[in-house]
Write a structure and sequence with these properties.
Elements: H1 4-55, H2 62-104, H3 116-122
């Protein structure tokens, strides 16, 4: 059984990792919705334009045109909701991750409950990070 301090160190170890994973998932979700919209929307717009042209001469086309316009409207509304929610999720998780990196990240040897393969990347301190030197002035 773990003590309260152990649970806190486990939570401190995992909060940034989980926030980073959720941020990546939100970014992929937003990107996939955007790419889908960029591919599908021009085709749907062309279809509606074609139906509008046909509707000028044939009144029966209205039975097809109106449901298609309604479907496209619903698609745009759901896409906007995905952008709103996914963007907020991405923003919040990126903020949590950056706060974790800056202030909450455990120091070397303080990690709890993290697998060894992941720990080798996370346990590196700032001193172990590669140093980028500025070019010497001329």
């Amino acid at each position: 059984m773990m003590k309260n301090g152990s649970w806190k160190s486990v939570a401190k170890s995992w909060v940034g990792i989980i926030a980073a994973c959720i941020a990546v998932i939100a970014a992929v979700w937003l990107l996939s919705v955007h790419i889908h919209a960029r591919i599908v929307t021009p085709v749907e717009k062309a279809y509606v334009d074609e139906l509008k042209e046909k509707a000028r001469t044939d009144s029966e086309i209205q039975k097809i045109l109106q449901p298609e316009l309604d479907r496209q409207h619903q698609s745009a509304v759901s896409r906007r909701n995905v952008y709103n929610r996914g963007g907020l999720l991405l923003l919040v998780m990126a903020g949590i991750f950056l706060a974790w990196i800056k202030w909450l990240r455990p120091g070397p040897g303080e990690w709890r409950g993290v697998p060894a393969w992941l720990l080798q990347y996370l346990d590196r301190g700032v001193a172990d990070a590669p140093v980028i030197e500025a070019p010497a002035p001329r």
